[in-house]
Amino acid sequence: MRRIAIGQYVRGTSPVHRMDPRVKLVACLAYMVSAFVAPAPWGLVPVLAMLALAIAASRVPSRLIARASGPLAFFVLLTVITNLLVVHEGTPVASLGWLVVTDVGVASAVVLGVRVLALMLAGALVTLTTTPVGITDGTERLLSPLARLGVPVGELATMVSIAIRFIPTLSEEMRHVMTAQAARGAAVDEGSLARRARVVVSLIVPLFASALRHAEGLGDAMEARCYVGGEGRTHYHVLALRRVDAAGIAVVAAYLAVVVAMAVAR
Amino acid sequence: MPITFEQVTYGYDGPGAGTRALDGVSLTIADGEFVGVIGHTGSGKSTLAELACAARLPDAGRVVVDGAPTADRRGRREARRRVGYVMQYPERQLFAETVGEDVAFGPRNLGASRDEARSAAREALELVGLSPDDLIDASPFDLSGGQRRRVALAGVLAMRPRAIVADEPTAGLDPQARQGVLDILRDLHGRGVTVVMVSHDMDHVAALAQHVVALAHGRVIADGTPAEVFSRAEELRRAGLDVPTAARVARDLAARGYAFAGEVPLTLDALARAVAAQAGPSAPRASAASPKSGPESESGPTPELEPGSGSGGGR
Ligand SMILES: Nc1ncnc2c1ncn2[C@@H]1O[C@H](COP(=O)(O)OP(=O)(O)OP(=O)(O)O)[C@@H](O)[C@H]1O
Ligand SMILES: [Mg+2]
Fold first, then answer.
1. Inter-residue contact B90 to A173 (CB < 8 Å)
2. pLDDT for A112-136, tens place per residue?
3. A–B interface: beta-carbon pairs under 8 A
4. Does the Cβ of A176 fall within 6 Å of ligand 1?
5. At what angle do helices B245-255 and B268-279 cross, to 10 degrees?
6. CB atoms near residue B59 (< 10 Å)
7. Ligand that lies nearest to the alpha carbon of residue B50, given by its number in the listed order
8. Span B114-153, pLDDT tens digits
């Protein structure tokens, strides 16, 4: 285990980076829906074109995009394989015992694979170009109407952003503890079940202990700076729509219009 | 137990990618030696420590522990068994309900019986200066910071390692606890255990190490006896490192006309002796200090030297 990549943000100054997180989140959501309603096969052309355009505009190296979406490739593969094996209409093109692959199956597997891939890359692109703080701030603003219904949106957003903030810290500490316990002869992949359980305990207890230690420290630090939750908190980074956002909205709106038109025309 | 690094390269982004935490490092740690590893923040000290105890494997080059490269399965097993690893803030590895159980964890994992492990635990607790009778049934989470660090050290020592690699073992301790940890390491070294100590504190290194390795940006910039390494003050300064307090004071004194014959004093004891020798016959009280004027007092307590070079705060 070398480095854990969760929602890794890649610094940059591209138009995609500079866009308001709210715009990115809504655009991404709309895009994800569109990737599924776009009629196959021609509807997938604008879907992929939009993705390619967004990736190009973000100037994130494709190597990093591949790495960020690597773990998700498993799901794409799973989707494709399930589809290949489950669809039985059409003419068989290959068979192995009771497993039959038909031409319709292949076509639908490819189409679904492309849709899922587009979905995941769009999500990855947002996390690659938006800071975790940006994502939580954006989400908080978008969900703020729910605050009127009594949902503590602000507190939830703070909690989530703190949790995200501590993932690298805790995983780094965890790694050290794992190394230390392994040096004491405790490897998770060796020995009897009882012994392995003991090894897991030797990792979990320190993890909780350090989570509590950090929580206590952070709690004190926040209190010392007079943190109070609830209404009326203002933001250090004020979200405001700018020219890039207008341009982004225009492009995405045009794209959605095309996809909707194609879906309706069918 | 000898440990050698041969052109070792290691990067956290995988072989050949990203920056290298260690870059072409070669060094030899002889059997029974006390080695101090120094270097600025991010210079690769911890990475070196983890490679030395086979917790990580080199991307290129070899780490050889007791004749067997850690890249081989057998060599790795032996290295992990024989080289104790004390991580930074080792008290974070404590997990068991009682001190006794925690310290016995290692021996139990190596296949010792319950009784054997318990007696190894008692022995290790004594080694770190804790009374087994008082503490063996206490919860590790009820102890003070310094005691917890000792318990964690005992957890490593209970496995009777032939070499021990300690990553900033005194970080975040008060001066007294710090001195305690240093004394434990000195004591282990006296028993023939090879000790590798990563430290930010030049005074600790000067007081204890026989061999100093200085790192900068993943490369070895100096490797030799403390006298050799610390004589290169200018190079060390450029690498963001300092020299021991005594050497700094000696340099300032030299600038004001004191002449130090032979090696620059590295510990306050040595400095005091050198200054006393200069004060010579003209200063009547100097003779009071002279009876102890043997070469390098090996046995005396480690001088605890604070100024300037504190080894990290926080907790
Ligand atoms: N888990 C990790 N993932 C990625 N990079 C790392 C990791 N640990 C260390 N590094 C990088 O490797 C280099 C060497 O780090 P290392 O921890 O060995 O330095 P160090 O000399 O121990 O520093 P310090 O004095 O701060 O403890 C640094 O550039 C650091 O950023
Ligand atoms: Mg370190």
1. no
2. 888 888 888 898 888 889 887 788 8
3. 69
4. no
5. 30
6. 16
7. 1
8. 999 999 999 999 999 999 999 999 999 899 989 999 999 9
